[in-house]
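User: Predict the full complex structure for these chains.
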Amino acid sequence: MDLRDTPDEAAFRAEVVGWLRENVPSGLDELSSPAALRDLTDIGPAKAWSAALAEAGYAGLTWPVENGGRGAPLTHQAIFLEESAAAQAPSHLGVLGLGMIGPTIAEHGTAGQKAHLPKILSAEEIWCQGFSEPGAGSDLAGVRTSAELRGDVFVVNGQKVWSSFAHISDWCMLLVRTEQGSQRHKGLTMLLVDLRSPGVDVRPIRELTGDSVFNEVFYSDVEVPVENVLGEVGAGWSVAMTTLGHERATLGFSLVGALEAQLGRAKALARERGVRDPLLLDRLAREVIEVEALKLTNRRMLASLSGGGTPGPEGSAVKLRWSLANQRLTALALEMTGPEATAPPAKWEYEFLRSRANTIEAGTSEVLRNILAERVLGLPRSR
Amino acid sequence: MPFALTADQIEIRDTVRRYLAGTLPLERVAGLAASETGWDPSGWADLAEMGWLGIAVPEESGGVGLGYVEQAIVVEELGRALYSGPYLSTVAALPSLEPAEQAKVAEGSARWSVAVSGLVPDFDRVDSVLGAGSGSPGACERLESIDPTRPTGRITGGAQDAQPPTVNQPVLQTLLAAEALGIAERALDMGVEYAVERQQFGRAIGSYQAISHQLADSFGDLELARSLVYASAWTLSEQPAEAARSAAVANAFTTERAVAVVERVIQVHGGIGFTWEHPLHYFYKRAVWLRAFAGYPSELRSVIRSELAGCLEPRLTDFGGEGDLIRDECSVL
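Assistant: Here is the predicted structure of the two-chain assembly.
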């Protein structure tokens, strides 16, 4: 057990700190904010930032060299995220491609499909995923969007919902039912779909924040070449599980990194406003402790992953605690700001409203508690 | 940055756990608490022989020469078993003792306790008291402690002023947190076991989310607590200058969460959890005692509150009395 950086880690940290100091342009924080994303023509600067990250080798740090990554250990990824948070640097625009879709293509993809990987790193291609449907939210096995093989194309019909970033995406990793009448986990297939194909209709959902990050995507007779099947036909469920496994492995670091940056802004707010009320300060102190505990817990998980372990269901605890912490922290920031928190530009108001989704997206708190209860504690299934 | 127990540390944990499973099954706890001595002094020699009393004592003083992580592991395991001897009290005093006295502790021939605010845990089962005027447990009057497995004495007369050497608070706070972690882990195990066995309305109660989600939340509490406890123990050994903060944080979080975990487990047990017959109440009372002894969580968080208010940072300019005013304001945080 050693919480200090090894010489190699310290050197990498110094490199990252130096690079971020030179390269994070001021105001970039706004570039990847939903207000900027809403205007589809305005993602240029965020793309340029993502490309700069890739150029410097910070996108896909842990990806194998042959896929355009750096082949670095997971600890480097953790260090990069910690320092990015400290520098308040915005994240790469292709969050889903980097964290979930890329690694899934790397694991299940053909040589042709792997050609997408460098483009994911450089943000030349932005990817989204199409899993959830109106009738399949937490229960993904209820997927009904169909794909029928006609010659050398699958013809896709159906509707997906809650596709983050679909409105700025070029490609989608889409879970469809290829076997008519199949039930639950069987008969599902994963397709890689070019969103510019005829018949694709992306409709942004206006969320309670007033912004649009999530989308409905309608597919009407969309033709997808058979070579775009990821993995085997009929093996879509296991491919989806790979994706969600990667989500769990890397998500914790990204989330806690973002929370730490948020906490940094809340601390700055407390100082700016000269907050001395012990009740407010105590609530902030609790979040300082919670964030430290989450960071350390990520590091313990990192040690087990680096030792060759696979991401376990324990990661669900980090996501659960992160979401609740962010909700408390943003509510506290409003209170520390006082009545003017509700007047424009109302940055904290946006963060506060946005945080309601934290306990719903990427596994609702209820599903996460079920996972902990059943798969970690060994309690009987609840249904 | 590997933040994980080493193979040797896991071996220590497993050895202590096996030893306690054999010598101190849960059924014995109630009997010991009701016995004349309140604990089993005959097992003390075992602790010395296994090297657990001197696990963090330097080798030249007859110890094993390991660090606070190993020390915390032993305390955590003793907590899991609800051990009622003065182990925690003794090792909490160690950092303030002379090498010769440390050697006596390591060989099992001296038992110590520490006085905090004039209160001395395990006063009736130790030879000496650190931080008490006379250093003698004989000067204590017995209090009816909330925790029957850890009797507490109060120093009588005018000897309440702490005498040097004083208690090392970061060590004490970290070890109390480690014991709270062990207490809560065992309680959670009991809660899970009960939720699997107990049937109501034709189903195991653990299949109801109103039950299982309380246990899942307890798991989350303890995952985070474990990280803070081990990090604080590591800091005590490797970066002692930082330890005041990490120990306060680990203690504040862990003792508060440990109480919450045991409370949920009592709720999961229903009526049986409220009986004297069921051992849960001993775990609950120990957790409540642990939360109080080195300062309540709200008090310990003042370290962080002061940091946030900027009270702990050097001020660049200090005009007139303004700085004092701000420091005064900060003192109530």
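The longest strand of chain B covers residues 140-143.
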